[in-house]
Fold Olfactory receptor.
Amino acid sequence: MDDTLNVTYLTFGGHVDVDRYRYVYFVIMFTIYILIICSNSVIVYLIWVHPNLHEPMYIFIAALLINSVLFSTTIYPKLLIDFLSDKQIITYQACLVQFHMFYSLGGSEFLLLAAMAYDRYVSICKPLQYPTIMSKTTVKIFLVSAWLLPACQLVLPTAMSAKEKLCRFILNGVFCNNTIYKLQCVISQARFVRDMVILLNVALVPVLFILFTYTRIFVISYRSSKEVRKKAAQTCLPHLIVLINFSCLCAYDVIVVGLEADFPKTFRLIMTLQMILYHPLFNPIMYGLKMKEIHKHLKRLFFPAKIK
């Protein structure tokens, strides 16, 4: 802590052999970051330029991919700087900003997936009412809500954390997540209850809504024609796979810190990096390969000579 400037510095203690492998880490993570930006941006570009993709389902996919880029940008620039630095430090104020953005955009992911689930439910189960229900206004409300609600709910815990006294200054990780609570001298019961309410609002309720919605879709599809079942499988399975993948990574983030599990540092690093490395690349691959219309435009973009 720098008393002369009244600035509190935290040290990231989750790095493994960063002095020895700093350039290897940097090259690998920089390459992945560029791949994340490019792969997500390509699909967003295709949705933007092709009128037949200007439908609610594809607009939500584009929003989800933009969210992935923002989510990665919250972590990667600072992480890359740390790899090349002698000391892996951050001010407490900057750490709280990263903490807020990390969980705000994570919450947005769940809400966007919930909006996509509702869109699929209306499309498959109420096709005649689809244009009326999923209007442009409805889509705009869903998008704004998905980004604003988590951000607003996380303002209070972030502001309260800024006032808390710290008894430790070494963060057990490589970026600022909920491990910052372990630095505080006192963890109140009120804070625990408040965080559980936020977790319920931005993660658990959307997940339960998504599972309920897709259960209804598959039940109705099973009773319908083969064409309806095929449509349900093609459009719903990618969303479910993305949901399961992201939910498992988020569960690790919440449970490990809550249980204060004493895992080896290397294991912690690998699991922590899964969320910022694997998932943002998984989304464009899943939607690019599994969504028929997007896959068709991707082939035309990269292999125009082979498309008649």
Observations:
- Residues 253 and 272 are 8 Å apart (CA to CA).
- The chain has one domain: 9-290.
- The chain has ten helices and three strands.
- The chain has a mean pLDDT of 85.
